[in-house]
Fold this protein.
Amino acid sequence: MAGDLTLVMDTPEILGISNDELANYTPRHPERFRRPPLYRYGGPLYARLPGHIPDSVWKHFDVPRTKLYCSMGVSGSPQVLNDVIDIVSDLDFQALIVTTTILAEETTRHADRVMLVPHVPAHLVSPRADIALTHGGAGTVQTAIHAATPLVGVPMHLEQAGNISLVARQGAGIMLSRPELTRRKLGSALEKLVTDSSFLANMQRLRKLQYNVDGARNAAREIIRFLAGDD
């Protein structure tokens, strides 16, 4: 898929495609395009939603136990999120699980160390967590990188698997398929993030690559250049 202008909202180092290679891309079948497509890097673009961290969340995370932040976005399945809640409730983590629109707000079946909330500003909560569990949406993955929080990803779609694989191949996360979402495998993956310091070190390295890139500003500049005919 390509538009007349296609903005890639990643960094070259994390995606693994240089800026020159992307900018000079030529389609294999140019006759299928009404005009030669342009690919340009915009950079990371993830939500910084308004609001503050509720006092109840601060209190929940104010413990010495390893803190887990879980968000499956709005594309996750109720079955997967319920499985995650059941598994995490049996593990020794202080977990904050965001239900968004996947589960009803009145969902309360969980252990005392597992807190369910419908929404929190992820970019503020993620830095407070030691590890993250996500479905692998681009924004969620980039938020984890912004916070330098190693992650375990359970993708729902191929695009999400691609996002998680970018982190996994950099040694900053682990990907599990839906059939692998068992207590033994998920528990082992989360424990590995905690005990193997290389995951945190690698995620901190990715954070340095992403942190100072203003994706929104870059994207706007590329759109203006395109409309002005400068490309």
